[in-house]
Amino acid sequence: MPLNPEQIRKDFPALHQQVNGRDLVYLDNAATTQKPQQVIDRLQRYYTTENSNIHRGAHFLSQQATEAYEGARKTIRGFLNAPHERQVIFTRGTTESINLVASSFCKKFVQAGDEVLVSAMEHHSNIVPWQIACQDRQARLKVIPINDRGELLMDEYRELLNNRTRIVAVTHVSNALGSINPIREMIRLAHEKDIPVLIDGAQAVPHLSVDVQELDCDFYCISAHKMYGPMGVGVLYGKEEWLEKLPPYQGGGEMIRDVRFSGTTYNELPFKFEAGTPNVGDVLGMEAAVKYLQQFDAGDLAAYEEQLLHYALEQLQAFEQIRFVGSAEMRTGVVSFLFEDIHPYDTGTILDKMGIAVRTGHHCAQPLMEFFGIPGTVRVSLGIYNTRAEIDALVEGLKIVRNMFG
Hints:
The chain is built from 14 helices and 17 strands. It is of the alpha/beta class. The chain has a 7-stranded mixed beta sheet, with helices on both faces. The chain has a 4-stranded antiparallel beta sheet with strand order 13-14-17-16, covered by helices on one side. It has a two-stranded antiparallel ribbon with strand order 1-2.
């Protein structure tokens, strides 16, 4: 389908409302995206006509829901180009996916004195789980440094990889800067030393075409709500060899094959990691979001968002006393900035009065903000339904902010 942003906007009911008496300008997509009517309708249809627990029921609704749920797994397998459905683990989102790997992997493969490698630009959800696991195993968390442009220092990365490194966990796209990391090269270098790599893909899948086989990553984590789907659901992709080795993350129904007080036999993949009642409705909503994205050419979407990003940068550069945070050569989806004499929160609050939604603060990346020596930024994050007219509205709003503070 040809890309028509104005036509796309018609699919998103939340965009057609007023905030504080102004038409909503939604520029907070890195926090969460709005949902197309197709996703909303799929959720409603499940709870209206299909609602049932899955896998264990003999009745019609259970069989229907099971077929739909496992069909969604096939759809998402294709979206990521995973080799098999059993490598697609449904979770509550990227955060739980990372926690699952951090807990299970470190429990089995990390010992005292070993090292786990993350980057200086990680979201807290790709820092704290590894801190917890390292503390438990008496291991060390090492950090890949960045430069002032918000780019990883690859020479330092190579030096950090050693025979004590057990796993590398790095974001594909920075949620605070929009930097696209060179993960293919990072994975290749790690694999030369037989080190597995986990990729936080939450901010990548809305903007980039992701092929986990081409990347050769060992784990890849995504959240539906970052890509126009429901909140509270996501996926962990893992290479089968690693998923088979890892112990279960949680115990309960579904993840077992046979239970005796004398011992339990765990279920096969992917169910070994899907304990408890599954979030069937939101999984189907995530599938609807994937199918919504798949109707467009991925190259067209990326090209449009790149044009919009450059337009936003051009317009914002006209302001005096503005500081851009992050200027990586490879970037997508995010413009992060602040006025040097205005607190980001004040900027965001005034913009909100004009119906303009941006994110302010540290963006769950406090170590990154400390590196730049700032309290936080104003983050403008773009989606497929944003337009140049909305960037123009943002600029007019920022002019008012600028005038209020002199």
